[in-house]
Design goal:
Blueprint (H helix, E strand, L loop, with lengths): L18 E6 L5 H17 L2 E6 L4 H13 L4 E4 L8 H9 L4 E4 L13 E4 L2 H15 L7 E7 L5 H14 L5 E8 L4 H15 L5 E4 L2 H13 L9 E6 L2 H9 L4 E4 L5 H12 L7 E3 L4 E3 H8 L5
Parallel strand pairs: 1-2, 1-3, 3-4, 4-5, 5-11, 6-7, 6-8, 8-9, 9-10
Antiparallel strand pairs: 10-12
The structure holds beta-D-fucofuranose.
């Protein structure tokens, strides 16, 4: 309601391009790079001037970028937040400057929902549930005990918290599954490999299932398993999230068993929201992206049209 509206809205006003400041949290994964690319392309297409900042997984750097957007008097600020806590102060600073905020991808756990206009992103809890359901089905014939390990993403980030909860809520209650261990691996290939290596060292042949919170970590884990002398996808069932081209390739090869899709192409949705805010329209508080699940059977069909 208190938003600055319509530099480009009035009919006799000379229109200048809308300026959007986007604080991207990092470049840790293929998903993230596809997301950044999508935002840049969509801005160009919409004729919106984009000021893009990559915070390299640092919340402090996100605050610095946002303060510079405020100084530059951008029209709208979009934030893809690295972790979900600690945003209230900076969101108040933006609010005082009268600049509308769009949260993209991950969420912020502010108590005051008026601190942002809308949140555009996926339902990570549901993604975790989908991963859990796959494991239940895949292991239906086995009597257990089935040992599960988890490669978690960034500590305190919404996708890691919610995917973990969705997965655990789906699996628990069935006592044939045993959670053997989990490690944070920051959503990167490198750490996925490192942390899988230590899980294997610690637990070895007791591991039957890996739930990886993203594809990059799963790809790293595959390398660690092969070095250890195990066959990924056979000796250890692997379920991952995102649906990048590289992961779908491994799915076709049978080294990953299931990939739950998370759609990074949020650019067009974001630009539409920016335009609507500038036109003074009211937006829904939450814009959720529809997504599916890929297995060996469906990966082949999907991969031909994959852009990332
Ligand atoms: O799954 C992961 C990335 O926030 C949904 O972040 C995003 C996640 C995505 O690093 O690959």
């Amino acid at each position: 309601p208190s938003h600055r509206v319509g530099q480009s809205g009035g009919t006799d006003m000379p229109s200048r391009p809308i300026v959007l400041g986007f604080s991207q949290l990092g470049s840790e994964s293929d998903w993230r790079n596809a997301n950044s690319q999508s935002v840049k392309e969509a801005a160009k297409e919409a004729g919106i001037t984009l000021i893009f900042d990559n915070a390299e997984q640092s919340q402090r750097k996100q605050f610095e970028a946002i303060r510079s957007f405020i100084q530059q008097k951008v029209d709208v600020i979009a934030i893809a937040p690295v972790v979900q806590s600690g945003w209230e102060g900076i969101l108040s600073e933006i609010q005082e400057a009268g600049i509308p905020v769009i949260i993209v991808d991950r969420t912020v756990d502010t108590a005051d929902a008026s601190q942002y206009v809308t949140l555009i992103g996926s339902d990570f809890y549901e993604e975790g549930q989908k991963a859990g359901k796959y494991v239940l089905d895949k292991m239906a014939a086995s009597t257990g005990p089935i040992g599960i390990v988890e490669l978690k993403g960034t500590e305190g980030s919404t996708p890691s918290i919610d995917r973990g909860r969705g997965f655990h809520d789906t699996i628990t209650g069935t006592d044939k599954f045993v959670f053997l261990g989990s490690e944070y691996a920051d959503f990167t290939h490198e750490q996925g490999k490192d942390k899988m290596r230590s899980l294997l060292y610690r637990l070895g042949g007791d591991i039957d299932v890996l739930f990886s919170h993203n594809d990059d970590m799963a790809l790293g884990a595959i390398e660690a398993m092969e070095e250890y002398g195990l066959q990924p996808g056979k000796d250890i069932v692997i379920v991952s999230v995102d649906g990048t081209r590289k992961a779908l390739e491994q799915l076709i090869k049978g080294k990953i068993n299931c990939v739950v899709e998370c759609n990074p192409l949020l650019g067009p949705n974001l630009m539409q929201a920016v335009n609507e805010i500038m036109e003074g329209r009211t937006l829904p508080k939450r814009i959720v992206t529809p997504e599916s699940v890929f297995t060996e059977v469906t990966a082949e069909r999907e991969i031909s049209s994959r852009k990332y």
